[in-house]
Design a protein that fits this description.
Pfam families: DDE_1, HTH_psq, HTH_Tnp_Tc5. It comes from Mytilus coruscus. Keywords: DNA-binding, Nucleus. GO terms for molecular function: DNA binding. This is HTH CENPB-type domain-containing protein. This protein starts with 10 loop residues before the first helix and ends with a strand. The relative contact order is 0.14. The chain has 314 residues and is α/β, with parallel strands linked by helices. The chain has three domains: 51 residues, Arc Repressor Mutant, subunit A (Orthogonal Bundle), CATH 1.10.10; 67 residues, no CATH class; 137 residues, Nucleotidyltransferase, domain 5. A hairpin with an 8-residue loop joins strand 3 and strand 4. The C terminus is likely disordered. The strands form two sheets. The protein has a six-stranded mixed beta sheet with strand order 5-4-3-2-6-7, with helices on both faces. The chain has a two-stranded antiparallel sheet with strand order 1-8. The protein is elongated. The protein contains nine helices and eight strands. Helix 1 runs antiparallel to helix 2, helix 1 crosses helix 3 and helix 4 crosses helix 5.
């Protein structure tokens, strides 16, 4: 019975491993990190196989060069108060994969697996997956240390960008929802013959989300209304610069937030740069496209405190 041939190594992966060894990295550790047989790596690092080319073996879904933008996103968000969770890492990796025209091992609709994330971390030891001191709901419990750390980050960012005396360049965005089924919680005084009623906004039979941004100087930007499934019939009286959108259940998602950011926030936040945009840590608010758009327009993204399993770059 003939021996089973060992698959040839991916050229990019092998070259990266050889460079690491030549820079003084441990041979055995590097071989394990890149998934390359130790003898093969040793021969290439010593030039014994110079002139030999490697054929197609198991290709990385993201090469070392293509994976660098993902590392940059991890570091960018970690420095701005929103370290990525394992779930967010998969989301960002999927977005990068969808930009690639060639076929990859990962389903671009489903995204990478947990094992892929583990291998990615092994190839990039400069990032680690860490668990905060507590794992409670970030909206329910935030410690005094969390608040102090956030304000230190905010103050440092304001000083770094020179916005101490420019409140018109510091914005906060948030969203709220109206279900149309709000319960009357209080009582009012009326005449004995008068019937009290409460007027609520009709969201067209479903949930309505309202996304808004306001500056530290008090300037309120046009609103974004997100209706469920279909638009209400009567929208008379709404300002013309408000943005009206639809989603399946009337909630914000990544595509809608990117639309709001590009088509409403950027045109209405003024011409001065840089600008700070403070937002909560919802996953729909973060994507590679939003970060790239923010960098192009000199908008600094800053996230409110959150407590989840996170990636750290140190």
């Amino acid at each position: 019975m003939s021996k089973k041939k060992r698959p040839k190594q991916d050229q990019t992966n092998l070259l990266a491993a050889v460079r690491a060894v030549n820079r003084g990295k441990n041979l055995s550790a590097t071989a394990r990190l890149y998934g390359i047989p130790k003898t093969t790596l040793y021969d290439h690092s010593k030039g014994r196989l110079r002139g030999c080319t490697t054929g197609p073996g198991r290709k990385l879904s993201l090469t070392m060069e293509e994976g660098q933008p993902l590392i940059n996103y991890i570091k960018y968000m970690a420095d701005r108060g929103r370290p990525l969770t394992n779930r967010m890492l998969k989301k960002f990796a999927t977005a990068i994969l969808r930009r690639k025209e060639h076929v990859t091992q990962i389903d671009k609709n489903k995204g990478p697996s947990d094992k892929w994330c583990q291998r990615f971390r092994k190839r990039h030891p400069e990032i680690k997956l860490r668990k905060p001191d507590k794992a409670s709901n970030p909206r329910m419990e935030v410690t005094r240390e969390d608040i102090e750390e956030y304000y230190d980050l905010l103050e440092t960012t304001i000083d770094r960008l020179g916005l101490r005396d420019k409140p018109e360049c510091i914005f906060n965005c948030d969203e709220t929802g109206i279900s149309g089924k709000e319960v009357i919680r209080g009582k009012v005084l009326v005449k004995s013959s008068q019937h009290p009623y409460q007027e609520i906004m009709n969201a067209g039979g479903g949930h309505l989300s309202i996304n808004m941004a306001i500056s530290a100087a008090g300037n309120c930007l046009p609103l974004m209304l997100i209706f469920a499934k279909h638009m209400p019939r009567n929208l008379d009286g709404l300002p013309g610069d408000w943005m009206l959108e639809l989603s399946k259940k009337g909630y914000m998602n990544g595509d809608l937030f990117l639309t709001w950011f590009k088509d409403l926030f950027i045109p209405h936040c003024g011409r001065q740069r840089p600008v700070i945009l403070i937002m909560d840590n919802l996953a729909s608010h973060l994507s590679p496209d939003i970060i790239d758009e923010a960098k192009r327009n000199r908008i600094e993204l800053l996230c409110l405190p959150q407590t989840q399993l996170i990636y750290s770059n140190h």
